[in-house]
Automatic annotation (TrEMBL), chain A:
The chain crosses the membrane at residues 21-42, 62-83, 104-133, 139-163, 170-189, 230-248. Its main location: membrane. It comes from Nocardioides phosphati. It is a multi-pass membrane protein. This is Transport permease protein. Keywords: Antibiotic resistance, Cell membrane, Membrane, Transmembrane, Transmembrane helix, Transport. It comes from the Bacteria.
Automatic annotation (TrEMBL), chain B:
Residues 5-228 form the ABC transporter domain. Gene3D superfamilies: P-loop containing nucleotide triphosphate hydrolases. Keywords: ATP-binding, Nucleotide-binding. It comes from Nocardioides phosphati. CDD domains: ABC_DR_subfamily_A (cd03230). The keyword ATP-binding applies. InterPro entries: AAA+_ATPase (IPR003593), ABC_transporter-like_ATP-bd (IPR003439), ABC_transporter-like_CS (IPR017871), P-loop_NTPase (IPR027417). GO terms for molecular function: ATP binding. This is Multidrug ABC transporter ATP-binding protein.
Length: 253, 241
């Protein structure tokens, strides 16, 4: 691996993204619009609702969504762009050049990680600043979790792109790999109230830890618990990148 | 001159059948070798073998003194794939700049390559907006960036204006004179006369290997197209299988 090549790839991906105004707008503005929609949905309900001591609905759901958005967006963007690179012959050309496979993967992860940081800054800023999201922990930690979630989406997207032949197939992987994680992450049913089998499955899905991390930032000023969740997600990111590297074969048919 | 490429008993299996069936040849440094044959005869596969990105390779393939695909060869080989493998959404200059950084060559090379490929006035145009020939030249430019010792060009002159084609062939000869081995594939037989040496290919086999004049003389034909036909009908190599 060489820092020069890794950074060259990250810079190139960002230049391509900057050229594509529509994608950039969707990546940055869409999460904000969806957070606003969520807030608006609950705005007419009698406040404070629920049992005393329980957070309001928006406060309950918003952190989970802040974890899920960067994950989904980065998963989609990464799997489609990598597939494009495989199909156009540029990947073959790069693999014939002195580029390490990790240069390629880490370059992509860096570029998309940066976009994710910007995306989360906007969505978190809007939620906390304008929509009144009430969190106990530090706001920056919310962003750190969001960026790590985005990297998780990037790693998974890189891996999945090896198994899709077309962009159409790559997009179809989303409902298969992402929706079950959303259903089981604790957003709908608390994870410890799930049936045993589903609880066990939920325990091995990375998004569960992302949502757990977000929830602990919301509930507690003690940042210790978040570290453990972040470590689990980071481990998944590394495994995803390693699997992605394994699928990048220099020699192909 | 030293042999830049030595190939012995090269067979490539793809999808259960042999795409290349026992090739033996050498490529000399300082020469432009034309790899000619109809579409689907195995030209691209052979080129991918030399560059080291083809799977299922058997036989001995030595490139610049090392086994094909060795990591140390990657900076020394310039490769233009048949598909235009540059980024459509970047400008020509941005594409060259990116690949120059991957190769670790200075930015001065970019202007040289722009001049060589005649893309100076299109340097800041986004590749996706260029014509097919211009895009192919941008892709060729990337292959030239590293000043390679072996240049492997898969159909670089397809669809180009004759004047430009003439200029590019002159460029290939200039690069060869500086000591590079240049392998250029084409399915158009009339490009044969521009090569120092020819490899004629059909159906995964080499049916002729020599200078254009020697091949014509041996086959008793006036042009390479005729020689190709005579060789195939005579069953010199291809008919036996």
């Amino acid at each position: 691996m060489s820092p020069r090549i890794t950074l060259a790839i990250a810079a190139r991906v960002l230049t391509q993204l900057r050229r594509d105004h529509r994608t950039l707008a969707i990546m940055l503005v869409l999460p904000c619009l969806l957070m606003a929609l969520l807030w608006w949905m609950f705005s007419d309900l009698p406040q404070p609702a629920m049992v005393p001591g329980q957070p309001e609905m928006f406060d309950r759901l918003a952190p989970a969504l802040l974890a899920i958005f960067p994950f989904i967006v980065m998963f989609l963007v990464t799997s489609v762009t990598t597939l494009r690179e495989r199909g156009s012959g540029t990947l073959e050309r790069l693999l014939a050049l002195p580029m390490g496979r990790l240069d390629f993967l880490v370059g992509y992860a860096l570029a998309f990680g940066l976009v994710a940081a910007l995306q989360s800054a906007l969505a978190v800023g809007l939620s906390v600043g304008l929509l009144g999201l009430d969190i106990a922990g530090p706001v920056w930690l919310l962003m750190v979790v969001a960026v790590v979630d985005a990297l998780l989406g990037t790693a998974l997207g890189l891996f999945v792109s090896a198994f899709a032949r077309t962009e159409f197939q790559a997009v179809q992987f989303m409902p298969a790999l992402v929706v079950p994680q959303i259903l089981l992450c604790g957003l709908f049913v608390p994870r410890d109230s799930l049936p045993d089998v589903l609880g066990a499955i939920s325990n091995v899905l990375p998004l569960s830890y992302a949502v757990d991390a977000m929830s602990s930032v919301r509930d507690s000023t003690d940042t210790g618990g978040v570290g453990g969740d972040l470590a689990v997600i980071a481990a998944y990111v590394l495994v995803g990148l390693a699997l992605g590297a394994a699928t990048l074969r220099r020699r192909t048919d | 001159m030293d042999d830049a490429v030595r190939v012995a008993g090269l067979t490539v299996q793809r999808g259960g059948h042999d795409v290349l069936r026992g090739l033996d040849f050498t490529l000399a440094a300082g020469e432009v070798t034309g790899l000619l044959g109809p579409s689907g005869c195995g030209k691209s596969t052979l080129m991918r073998v030399l560059v080291g990105v083809q799977a299922g390779v058997r036989g001995e393939v030595t490139v610049l003194g090392q086994p094909a695909g060795s990591a140390s060869l990657r900076p020394r080989i310039g490769y233009q794939t048949q598909a235009v493998s540059v980024y459509d959404d970047l400008s020509v200059r941005e594409n060259l700049g990116f690949f120059a950084r991957v190769l670790g060559v200075g930015h001065g090379r970019i202007d040289e390559v722009l001049a060589t490929t005649g893309l100076g006035d299109k340097a800041d145009a986004v590749v996706g907006n260029l014509s097919g020939g211009q895009r192919s030249r941008a892709s060729l430019g990337v292959a030239l960036l590293g000043d390679p010792d072996l240049l492997v060009l898969d159909e670089p002159t397809v669809g180009l204006d004759p004047v430009l084609r003439e200029e590019l062939w002159a460029t290939f000869h200039t690069l060869a004179q500086r000591g590079a081995a240049v392998l250029v594939s084409s399915h158009v037989m009339d490009e044969a006369e521009r090569c120092d040496r020819l490899l004629l290919m059909r159906d995964g086999l080499l049916i002729a290997d020599g200078t254009p004049d020697a091949i014509k003389q041996e086959a008793g034909a006036d042009d390479i197209e005729g020689a190709f036909l005579a060789l195939v009908r005579g069953g010199t190599a291809g008919g036996a299988a």
